[in-house]
Design brief:
single chain, 171 residues, mainly beta, eight-stranded antiparallel barrel, elongated
């Protein structure tokens, strides 16, 4: 059983959501951490843990970022972290418990393992994974919205998530 530590400089935690029914807003968390342990030759043995620090949310709009940090959305003062802990991994899916604002729900994401390679700069071994999926923000208590005069709402309920992560073996 090997443990891989997250290489934050080669990783990202990003999301997108519909805005005003006509466009998509993209954002990311700039502070996060994670770990994989298990046998990369048998993905079913993998255990994956990840944390995103909500205060680091960034959408290229300071007012929106502050609103997302507020009690209307993430309430970062009470709930500073989003956590994911895997329950099972297959060749193309990962299922686990996602915790946002003390609401925990099982979610399944697409899972892509990109192999293991030796880093020529450090002589250590690295592996990369990608997780993709969609969650319903409302089941996590992220229910703020505003009706639009022309119909529809300000913020879509479905949030697309994409995490690209590179890990270095820890010995």
């Amino acid at each position: 059983m090997k443990t891989f530590k997250l290489d934050k400089s080669h990783s990202s935690v990003e999301f997108s959501v519909k805005h005003m029914m006509v466009s998509t807003v993209k954002g990311r968390f700039t502070e996060f951490d994670g770990e994989i342990s298990g046998d990369l030759e048998d993905l079913s043995t993998l255990q994956v843990k990840g944390i995103a620090y909500v205060d680091s949310i960034e959408t290229k709009n300071a007012d929106r970022d502050n609103h997302l940090r507020s009690a209307d959305f993430f309430d970062v003062e009470k709930f500073p972290e989003i956590e994911f802990v895997s329950k099972s991994v297959t060749d193309n899916t990962i299922t686990g418990d996602l915790k946002i604002k003390d609401e925990v729900h099982e979610e399944t994401f697409e899972f892509e393992h990109n192999g293991v390679h030796k880093n020529p700069f450090t002589d250590s071994y690295v592996t990369g994974v990608i997780l993709r999926g969609t969650i319903n923000r409302e089941k996590y208590g992220l229910t703020w919205n505003q009706a639009l005069e022309t119909g529809g709402v300000m913020v879509g309920k479905d949030v697309k998530i994409e995490i690209g992560a590179e890990f270095e073996i820890a010995e």
